[in-house]
Amino acid sequence: MNEAKPTKAKWWTRPRSSEDATDGDFELERPRGADAGSTGDGDFELERPAPPRGTEASDDGDYELDRPAADGAGLPPAPPERPRPLHEPDPYSTPPYGEPGPWAPAPPVQHPATTPAHGTATPSPANAPAPHPAPAAPPGAVPDPAFADAPPPAPAPRPAATPPPGPTPDPAFADAPPPVPPAGRPAPHLTHGTTASPVPAPGAAPGGAPTPVPPARQPESGDAGAPQPAAAAAAPEPAPGQSAEPDFDPWGRYDPWTASAATAPLQHSGTPDERRRRTRKALIGGALLIALVSGIAGGVVGVHLERNGGVGTVELPQAGAESAKRAPGSVAALAGRALPSVVTLHVSGSESAGTGTGFVLDDRGHILTNNHVVDPAGDGGEITVTFNSGDTAEATVVGRDSGYDLAVVRVKGVSGLTPMPLGNSDNVRVGDPVVAIGAPFDLAGTVTSGIISAMERPITAGGEEGDASDVSYVDALQTDAPINPGNSGGPLLDSRGRAIGINSAIRSAGGGSAESDGGQSGSIGLGFAIPINQGKRVAEELINTGRASHPVIGITLDMDYSGDGARVGADGSAVTKGGPGAEAGIEPGDVITAVDGQRVHSGEELIVKTRAHRPGDRLELTLERDGRERKISLVLGSSDGG
Q: PANTHER family per the record (predicted)?
């Protein structure tokens, strides 16, 4: 098995360091009988061992060493028997049980201090002692195979032998740079001062065991006449007082098989490119992880928001509480002051029923409204008054007049009433702002606003009766404030909250002229109110006497006349004898064209203009007779209204 493979020296053949020897390897002694003329460099054949007794020398083959003497004279004392190893010795010295193989010698490690260049001889100190070679084993001695791998016993100290000049260094360490000896210790001795590099002395293995020595090259079996190696030298024992283990040198030769356990393990950090790649991979992985976590969290939040409509309850922005007070001239302020005085009337009779509005005149319970509102009640109907507070009371008719379309009712047993303040309709001008309050379509407390669109608008309302006894003639205030069925009898307020009219009629798109016609048409912006001055006079008369007086001229008009003006009837009875007209000189067939300088175009307008005054007022009339125009003056008479 060992053919064609150099035979390696066993670990016990390594020389021990003497008491004055330094760390490192030692050169073997040059073989005796070497050619004196050979150079210091190169390999040398070791001396063949002496042939065993009783045999003849042979050039080839193995040789048996001399057996030790029987009495043991001249031999060192036998070492104590060591326990047999648990495993069989490794014949091939395979690591880790054997030495490092020749295919992988341990690399040398040198001190980082400055060292001489390769090939430069290192001078040795003058006082450096030469190493002591180990004594050769007696010839013929054969080691016990059972302890082939066991270390030999330490020999007794002997005089150091000077190695012969010119030993050959180990070729395995020929390229290693020379080590620098530690301070305070002698440098190893060089046998020749050319380019030989000293090797560090072997250290002690853990537990005091010697460190294996790299084997010297053995001659192959085919080399003829090659000298055999000499016996290995044993390391001398330490001197008294000196430690058996050499000083630890961290910069000594590195031996992987005897490295100290305290030595930190070497770690490979990789090249800069590898470190950059690892860093890049770590960053990319972290970014992907963050993106994944963010996506999952966003999905969970989105699902929650979609299912629940938000993180919490929805709260919409809203203005804070403000003062309830409003500007005195605002619609809100006017409505706030007037609503307590406005009432809603529910009228029912044997044939019909209706709803209207009224307002309180005084604290005695008198309420003013339209005649056509209370007309369904007749003589035996019921009238229920509902106040703004929600209280209700029964009412009775005090008086009513169809010519003025006004009526007064009274509630009893009610206290704390708020009368409506009355204004002056003569102070009203076109364009003044107004507010209408009523119960259109039985919606009590409805407030609308607008302006005065026109003044002294002559209108007639009613006429359901065949004899025209229900026709009212009103010199009305026109407004665009929305007035609808149910607003009749309600107040029309000025900018100070005072009543300046009584809402009475509307012009609807269907051609109706008043709410009393039973229609349910809505407002088209044409509403009419009785001036409060006329309403006040009629209400006072109704409350005081139960009847209203009408101013009269004492003539009968031709209502079929289609010309401009109002024509007096042609028969002799058209002018009442002893009446205001007869005394003023009016004759049948005269055409009245103006009243107090205001043009009239029909008989209805003349009636309206006349009823706009009180009985006893003086009027200036312009009339035409036989193509001639003349002016007359008269004092209005009075007649009881029906």
A: PEPTIDASE S12 (PTHR43343), PROTEASE DO-LIKE 8, CHLOROPLASTIC (PTHR43343:SF3)
CB burial string 539-571: b at 16+ within 10 A, e below: bebbbeeeebbbbbbbbbbbeeeeeebbbbbee
Indicate which residue of 132, 189, 372, 550 is catalytic: 372
d(Cα 62, Cα 228) in Å, to the nearest integer?
10
Reported as a single tens digit per residue, the pLDDT across 109-159 is 555 555 555 555 555 544 445 545 544 444 444 455 444 454 555 554 554
Q: What is the C-alpha to C-alpha distance for residues 568 and 578, in angstroms, rounded to an integer?
A: 16
The whole-angstrom separation of Cα 73 and Cα 192 is 37
Mention every residue, 6+ apart, whose C-beta is less than 8 A from residue 302. Answer: none
Q: Which of 17, 453, 488, 513 is catalytic?
A: 488
Residue with structure tokens 């100190």? 125
- Is 488 part of the annotated catalytic residue set? yes
Separation CA 477–CA 398 (nearest Å): 26
Where is 393: in which H helix or E strand?
strand 392-401
Give burial (CB, 10 Å; 0-12/13-18/19+) of 297.
exposed
Element (H, E) at 297: helix 272-308
Q: Does residue 335 surpass a pLDDT of 50?
A: yes
Concerning whether 372 is annotated as a catalytic residue, the answer is yes
Find out whether 493 and 500 touch, Cβ atoms under 8 Å. Answer: yes
Contact 233, 135 (CB under 8 A): yes
Annotated active-site residue in 405, 475, 480, 590: 405
